[in-house]
Amino acid sequence: MTETINLQRRLVLAGGAGGAALLASGVGLRAQEASALPDYVSFKNPDAMIVHSNNTLETERSAFGASSLTSEERLYIRNNVSPPDESVLDDRDAWEVSFEGVAEPRAITVGELKTMGVETVAMVLQCSGNGRAYFEHQPSGTSWQVGAAGCVMWTGVPLRAVVDALGGVAEGAQFVTGTGGEPIPDGIEPRDVIVERSVPLDALDTILLAWDINGEPISLAHGGPLRMVVPGYTGVNNVKYVNRVALTETETDALIQSERYRIHPVGTDGSPDYPSVWQMSVKSWITGPLESAVAGTNQIIGVAFGGINAVESVEVSVDGGETWEAAEFIGPDLGRHAWRPFVLARELEAGNYTIVSRATDSEGNQQPEEMEPNDPGYNHNGWRAPGVELTVG
Ligand SMILES: Nc1nc2c(c(=O)[nH]1)N[C@H]1C(S)=C(S)[C@@H](COP(=O)(O)O)O[C@H]1N2
Ligand SMILES: [Mo]
Question: To bridge 330 with a disulfide, which of 3, 107, 112, 341 should be the other Cys (CB 3.0-4.6 Å)?
Fold first, then answer.
């Protein structure tokens, strides 16, 4: 609890004081008080973003409100490498993807992919490190709170349709491996920086190769001209600027797969012996009110999702988890992989409250109170730490 409050205070302070020093210490700046958003994300709403660095921008918790979908203007950003040159968007349909590990491998342009099938999925895109700030061992890496996530709608061709058109899956394939098309700087070993991720072949039936986000062509920042999206899997598996899709017998040996993004004990190094960050677990958080509220009826709102499963229900507690009340979902159900905003209308007298939420998925999995730590601080879904300290007056 105190950790959360301290973080919030530090974020507020960060806006006023010496920005550069605070950035260096890993605490984000509120964008409206930072000098500017980085150029390639200048379309973002500055009031909605916390700038941790050029390559890491977090959505302000209050900016989620009760929305079923997150606009590109508010969606978080996480780039491991600098994006390709903007000129790749001059002719989006000319972008080429090579398909391997199928009966008839070949390269296909986005223009041709658009003739092979079309589907839309709403899904939570969430960085594996979302909630890292809540681990007590202070993992290295961006101190994301709740805002390295959003719910977005992607439109593209089902990978299954492309694989079928290419004669089906090659014998022995166990993984779908997608490669990001960022140019690799000279003098660097490609394997060390390439964004290449493998996910289990099971995901083949839900993966889309997407060209639109929320009904518009995907911006460069979010992976245009083409992104491989894997519903229910953490952010890193959703490869932007995808230029190769291979059905492979083994996982890629790129560092981002073999050593990084693994769940390993605090103080150890990552390796292929530990589980990869793949499927997401059930999670929720309160999005309002966040600091103060007026005595009387309050609409306590938040978002909840099941990750790889659908979300079934969500409860809210105004006394830090002593007693729970069922919240109601708001708006349409956008499918298994989307989040659902929720509300609890609650009478609150003047006083101090600790507001927390706890979701359950369709398989009966419920968010734990505390999250077992792992060295890099991935997959946080404990309900206690993201609680809100609310003063009602
Ligand atoms: N090509 C490519 N794909 C990528 C990345 C990247 O750096 N390059 N970052 C990954 C990570 S770690 C995350 S959390 C998400 C972030 O997606 P966003 O910036 O669109 O929010 O993209 C993933 N896909
Ligand atoms: Mo990420």
Answer: 341
Q: If you average pLDDT over every residue of the chain, what do you get?
A: 93
CB 377 within 8 A of CB 262: no
Question: Number of C-alpha atoms within 13 angstroms, CB side, residue 193?
Answer: 15
State the Cα–Cα distance between residues 70 and 24, nearest whole angstrom. Answer: 28
Q: Is the peptide bond before 289 cis (omega within 30 degrees of 0)?
A: yes
3-class state of residue 333 by DSSP: coil
pLDDT per position as a tens digit, 169-194: 999 999 999 999 999 999 999 999 99
Dist. CA 295 → ligand 2 center (Å): 39
* Residue 141 burial by Cβ neighbours in a 10 Å radius (0-12, 13-18, 19+): middle
Residue with tokens 């989307």: 338
- In the chain, what are the helix, strand and coil shares in percent, each to the nearest 5? 15, 35, 50
Query: Which residues lie with the beta carbon below 6 Å from any ligand 1 atom?
Result: 75-81, 125, 127, 180, 182, 195, 222-223, 235-236, 238-241
Q: How many helices (H) and strands (E) does the chain have?
A: 6, 23
Q: For strand 388-392 and strand 196-200, is the pairing parallel, antiparallel, or unpaired?
A: unpaired
How is residue 319 annotated by DSSP?
A: B
